[in-house]
Amino acid sequence: MNAVINCAFSIINPMIWSLSCFLGDKGCMEKATRLFQTRIHIETPLYDRNVGYRDVNCIGIANSLLESEWNTIFERYYKLLTKKESESQRLDLLYSLSCSRNVSLLERLLDFIIENKVDPQHLNRGQFYYTIAYVDSHPASNYTAWKWLKINSAKVDKRYRMSSGSSTFYLKRLAYNMKTREQRQEVLDYFDEYPFAAKYLKSTILDIIDRNIRWMDKNLPCIGKWLEDNAP
């Protein structure tokens, strides 16, 4: 029974800790940053059992002002590209790299996935999907993924031997974070450039964005009023 309880806590505690960090708990953020700073140069760091490995790296990267620290995590990710048994570690490090607030580093990460030929098996469509989804998932950087995709659509199609315009498959993922009329117009302009893709995905993607816009129109004034009345 004790073994079962210990196993349960080993799963639940990191989840609670991660949620606390991403809700902005000061103590949690400070602990994550401190762990990152003290253990970044350890090849296989042994973190506190109550702390999520990839979330320590994510928060550390997000709060870091040093490009060299991002490079250290990137080099660790690079080394794992040819190790078939390290898929979960690769994805953890990829997620951590995407947490940076430095747009040039995020663009460098996206460029790497598209252009690098270290091991094409591991730099496949799925790996690119994870990369652009991870970059898009962080509020400080989600517009970066869309801006990058607009510029590099032809390169994405060529890299993965997809028909012209079908890179908009990834745009469907990005649409979930689009919530302004300006972004909607940018997507329409994009579809004008890639009419082939519009035939299959236009209505679905626009419907996602329209739902987001309606939600913002309905709820943003109330949220703003609540924050004005209650925020310290």
Explain the overall architecture:
By secondary structure, the protein is mainly α. It has one domain (64-230): Zincin-like fold (Alpha Horseshoe), CATH 1.25.50. 73% of the residues lie in helices and 0% in strands. The chain is built from eleven helices and no strands. It has helices at 2-22, 26-39, 53-63, 67-80, 87-97, 103-115, 125-136, 142-159, 169-175, 181-193, 195-230. The longest helix has 36 residues, at 195-230. It is flat. It starts with a helix and ends with a helix. The model is unreliable at 1-12 and 46-50 (pLDDT under 50).
What is the CATH class name?
Answer: Mainly Alpha
Number of helices: 11
Strand portion = under 5%
How many beta-strand elements?
A: 0
The CATH topology corresponds to: Zincin-like fold
CA-to-CA gap between the ends? 45 Å
Give the C-alpha Rg. Answer: 20 Å
Q: Which percent range fits the helix content?
A: over 70%
Overall geometric form: flat
Structural class: mainly alpha
How many strands, which pairing sense, and closed or not: the largest β-sheet?
none
Unreliable segments of 5+ consecutive residues:
1-12, 46-50
The name of the CATH architecture is: Alpha Horseshoe
Question: Quick check: average pLDDT?
Answer: 76
User: What is the succession of H and E elements?
Assistant: HHHHHHHHHHH
Query: What count of domains describes the coordinates?
Result: 1
